[in-house]
Amino acid sequence: MSQTIDTTAPGGSGPRQANGVAAQPRRWRLAAYPSLLALPAVLLLIAAMAYPLLTIVSRSFSEPEWGLQNYVWFFSTDVNIQVLLRTFSISAWVTLVCVIAAYPYAYLMTVVGPRMRLVLILCVLVPFWVSGVVRTLAWVILLQDSGVINSVLKAIGFGGVKLIRTPTGVVIGMAQVLLPFMILPLYSVMRGIDLRLVQAARSLGARPALAFWQVYLPLSLPGVFAGAIIVFILALGFYITPALLGGPRSTMLSTLVQSQVLSLLNWGRGGAMGVVLLVSTFILLALAAPLMRQRHKQASRS
Amino acid sequence: MGYKSALAGIAGATAIALVSTFAASAQEAPPAGTIVDGSLKGKTLTFVSYGGIYQDGQNAALKDFVDKTGVTLLNDGPTEIAKLQAQVESKNVTWDVVDTADLPPYVHCGTLFQKLDLSKIDVSHIPAGQVGECSVPAMNYGVVLMYKNDTYKDNPPKGWKDFFDTEKFPGIRAIDGSGDPIGGLIEQGVLADGGSVENMTPADIDKGIAKIKALGPDTIYWKTGAESQQLAESGEADMILMWTGRAMTAVKNGAQYTPVWQDWLVVMDQLTIPVGVKDTDAAYALINAYLGKNAQEVLTEKTSYSPINNEAQPKVDPSVAAFLTNTPERVKQGYQQNIKFWVQNFDAASEKWTALMAGN
After folding, report:
1. How much is the ipTM here?
2. What is the DSSP letter of B222?
3. For residue range B41-96, what is the model confidence (pLDDT) as tens digits?
4. Residues of A in contact with B217 (CB under 8 A)
5. CA distance B236 to chain A (A)
6. Tens digit of pLDDT for each residue in A191-237?
7. Chain B within 8 Å of A76 (Cβ-Cβ)?
8. Strand pairing of B239-243 and B136-148?
9. What is the spatial distance between Cα A247 and Cα B31, in angstroms, rounded to a whole number?
10. GO CC terms for this protein (chain A) (predicted)?
């Protein structure tokens, strides 16, 4: 094929012609396989993600011997089931708290002037750059029985509240750590919403609440879903915050994995726990996916 | 000189030679603290421990060894048995001497840790009963019951029975939940329950853990030494199980707590050599230097942990001395957990302990 091109090519200097001819099929090939562009990322993911994950899965079936014993053990141990359900429920609460806290904040970011917006962005990002451990320890000081919150409550005449070492304390701490992951996707979606649509709804007689509910909210839902998924999935794997802010009744699955692997050297069981968490996350996402697609269509239609 | 005297001379010389050979083999292990100048030039050893002032103190204790033998000492950490297992399994062991918690060298003796050749290290100055088949102690400390002065005033708890008695001694308890089961505390739970620890059975683990669970839902299981110290300094709990080093620091920082020394739980860190290290003799040389009197004095002065050489006379101020566990009085009051039992039942105990930690 290269020869036919060679013969039909218009005149020119030899080497240049040869170069052009050689380049042409190469360009063709790249155009035919654009997925090749993803090769570096794919290789990295295989080495750093797929291979270790496969090792974990295979060890969960092969240690100490081939079979399902690690999964049988997982589902026949009450603690594991209880902690798995608790992990999902705490993550769901964290996601809810994040949505409620982030939504008005992200909206505010879209309506203020540029200088104020910078301040708001910094308020989100600066804590984000501080290590999670440091932030968690700060929460210890705030939430503990003799801490800032309880001292203030007692000083103004209220009784103390039990915050640290309760699921509530863990949700508060995790929500603060994860808040940027909700605010940033929400902001990027809200920034793209044309506020004239809300004005149009108002001019057609909708009260502000209705205009928000029927126009603005559906348009912002993709951001809510994106943020919720990121926050929920990150929350499932949290380790430090529940360990420091929680008590026995707020232990999450990662702590149990840690004790299986690090103190019992039971890689099989630890792997099985990880796989169960991963698979149940996939199932949950699969259930949520159709809901999200539908909402998304609604939003784009309006 | 006659024939007979010549024979006698040969016999005498042989006898001397025999005696000296015998003496040499009996004393083959160089005395603890021995450092041979220039003996490890060009060699590298990796020492693994738990970081912080502890590992810094260990490095200070080994400074003489490093300076004189010419070895390059690298530091790594924190010790994680799972990481070590991965190294041993892949036959690429980069950790030469590893400081561990007290049970792992017994649980993984021969599989992850080498059986120690006692002709290469001098263990004669180590406190009795602390040399394992695969480990020597790295330092001694204790888990001690600290009670809050304000809460108990004139009627303070005097031992573990009072710790487990929530009626006579109400208040929030805080327990070491940083990792492995605290065998000594479970044993004390069995005793407080009216049981005996003479011939422990796995059923006793349940009894002891039930006793700990009966302390109530407000019980705090601290995850790190720093957290226990923070609990004491802010007065969050009424009785706290604390490592002696952390207890000392908390009191120094103004925590209003008092230790109960009766039956304090004896704990130690261990020094081990993993299976498959490249230069075993160099690792032995490091350990033997570490066990020496001078090294142990430096270690205690820098870290406030108790030395494991009985000749060491560290110079420490009274606040540190008050929490050292190697004085004759403290040695008498200490409670040593049944290591053999906990090693044999390590998996069962860990599982039950984990369930306790997870709220079940």
Report:
1. 0.75
2. E
3. 999 999 999 988 899 999 999 999 999 999 999 999 899 999 999 999 999 999 99
4. 249
5. 6
6. 999 989 999 999 999 999 999 999 999 999 999 999 999 999 999 99
7. no
8. antiparallel
9. 49
10. plasma membrane
